[in-house]
Amino acid sequence: MTTYDLAIIHGDGIGPEVNREAVKALNAAASRFGFGLQTTEYPLGAQAYLETGTLIDPGTMDSLRAHNAIMFGAMGDPRVTPGILERGLILRMRRELRQQVNLRPVRLYPGVPTPIKDLDPGRCDFVVVRENTEGMYVGGGSTVHAGTRNAVALQESINTAQAISDVVDYAFRLARARRGKLTLCHKKNVLVHAGELWQSIVNEHAAQYDDVEVDYVHADAMCQHMPMNPERFDVIVTDNLFGDIISDLGATIQGGLGVAASANLNLDGTAPSMFEPVHGSAPDIAGKGWANPAAAVLSAALCLASLGEGKAALALENAAASVLGELPALAGAGMGATTEQIGDRIAERITDETGISSQIEETSIMTAMAAI
Ligand code: IPM
Ligand code: MN
Fold first, then answer.
1. Is 334 in a helix, a strand, or coil?
2. Which residue of 173, 209, 235, 355 lies most exposed, with the fewest beta carbons within 10 A?
3. Tell me, what DSSP letter sits at residue 148?
4. What string of H, E and C letters represents the secondary structure of 224-293?
5. Whose alpha carbon is nearest atom 5 of ligand 1?
6. What band does 92 get if pLDDT is binned at 50, 70 and 90?
7. 134 CB-near residues (< 8 Å, 6+ apart)
8. Predicted pLDDT of residue 353
9. pLDDT tens digits for 258-316?
10. Residue 109 in contact with residue 121, Cβ under 8 Å?
11. Does the beta carbon of 90 lie inside 6 Å of ligand 1?
């Protein structure tokens, strides 16, 4: 029996509540599909930082490296200056663990309410493949004459051919395993240096993947096309900042942050990948049972898919999607059930042996991901 060794980082706010339900779903999948799970909790986040003054020590980063994958809840706390935990922990782990791809599926499941009028679920099923270690997120730059009228702020965007090529190659492979369409999202009419490099690398790959249809959309126009014509997209590949922005729009289209899952993928096996809901720590609702664990469970499904457990991943997606489709609201007091009750319902549906809905299975990201 294969046993997967997972690091669990619950984090802050609603992080622990939703991540516990994700681990519950993983355990349900393990017993149904016959694999083992071993978990180690790492108390990283605001509380540990406030107590010790340290975000993460090198030894802990090394211990994380030894796991097969990391399940991450959320980070952020009103007692800590905004940005400290985000840059010092989340972005640092993405970079140091070489998680070059941030994969964010945007799929509208049947029965899930969306703010987009008359959007048929069949029309909305695409994936954002976001570069995850570079661009504006590197934090390069400087400020001089701060606090005066002569202040100058330089914020650099780093774009290396190697990182772009790795991400673009993954996006092409994913497109080939899905509906065979790739769209580059950038702003190359204005950001000429970075835009030119991204486009030229996409063109190089297009020559090798001649069965994949290639398209280009500016980032601003993307914000119009995604809600209006989501069927136009299959795999969208983009840089770190554009990917951050358009994936929140994607989350809105698919019903909100209670549904949006993500995978930070290490592509070369040098460190574990990390799985986290797109939503933050929502300290205002922490402890109330108002957070929807579906985004965390769907992130756990991506974890299983990346470990090659495609069937189990599909069972998690199927269970989360069917429970989501029954909820009167996707977050807050109106969900009609608590975080834990929703997690229990999902876990029960994973272990009962009823089949996977063919509607879910046909275009599932889980199958494509497990296959590449
Ligand atoms: C996300 C978040 C992070 C990001 C923050 C918390 C640093 O918004 O995962 O999308 O900007 O990448
Ligand atoms: Mn974001």
1. helix
2. 355
3. S
4. HHHHHCHHHCCEEEECHHHHHHHHHHHHHHCCCCCCCEEEEECCCCCCCEEEEECCCCCHHHCCCCCCCC
5. 86
6. very high
7. 157, 158, 159, 160, 163, 239, 240
8. 76
9. 999 999 999 999 999 999 999 999 999 999 999 999 999 999 999 999 999 999 999 99
10. yes
11. yes
Judge if pTM exceeds 0.85.
yes
pLDDT tens column, 17-35: 999 999 999 999 999 999 9
CA 132 – ligand 1 centroid, Å: 10
Q: Where are the alpha helices (DSSP H) in 88-127?
A: 92-96
The pLDDT value given to residue 274: 98
DSSP category for residue 124:
-
| CA 142 to chain centroid | 30
Is 244 near ligand 1, meaning CB less than 6 Å away? yes
- Give the sign of the dihedral formed by CA 236, CA 241, CA 245, CA 250: positive
**Ligand 1 contact via 86 beta carbon (within 6 Å):** yes
For the cut 90, the answer to whether the pLDDT of residue 225 exceeds it is yes
Q: Is 121 buried (19+), middle (13-18) or exposed (0-12) by CB count in 10 A?
A: middle
Q: CB–CB of 252/327 below 8 Å?
A: no
Instruction: Give the tokens for residue 237.
Output: 């590949």
When pLDDT is cut at 50, 70 and 90, the band that residue 102 belongs to is: very high
Q: Does the structure show a pLDDT above 80 at 354?
A: no
Core vs surface per residue 258-293: b (16+ CB within 10 A) or e: bbbbbbbbbeeeebbbbbbbbbbbbbebbeebbbbb
Ligand 1 atom having least distance to the Cα of 102: 9
User: Which residue lies with its CA nearest to atom 3 of ligand 1?
Assistant: 86
Which among 12, 72, 91 is the best mutation to test ligand 1's pocket, defined by most ligand atoms within 8 Å of the CB?
A: 91
